[in-house]
Amino acid sequence: MIFRSVPRTLLRVLGAVFLCVALVGAAGCGGGQGAASAPGVSAVRTPDWAEGMATVRASDLPRQARDTLALIDKGGPYPYRQDGAVFGNFEKLLPRQKRGYYHEFTVPTPGERDRGARRIVTGGGGEFYYTDDHYDSFKAVLR
Prior knowledge:
The protein is built from 2 helices and 6 strands; from the N terminus they run αβαβββββ. It has 143 residues and is an alpha+beta fold. A hairpin with a 4-residue loop joins β4 (119-123) and β5 (128-131). The N and C termini lie far apart (48 Å).
């Protein structure tokens, strides 16, 4: 046998490690922070920039917010002239950055005659945030 010269204790430890890895992989746990635990739901790790914040998966956002994300990914064109404007973070709810780091985009609200309260705010490092209450709160968007 190939393992004849390997001490039994080492074989037991390696066997236990292998078993643990196999069980964790089969359960889909991942063990990472922010990993989904519901069966059939893909795990999305919470990025460092979103630690301590409420989060939302992009797929769980309202359709209009997902449409706005798609427009941002394409680089426009945007339906509102204010889209892409610098977001000042005056509420200080997002991590502090230099002016010009954040930009805001309108998420249309059905039934509203104006831009409504919903926005996507992007950060210069690839961050995405969603607010549905005109900057009173934010959720980090997990993509």
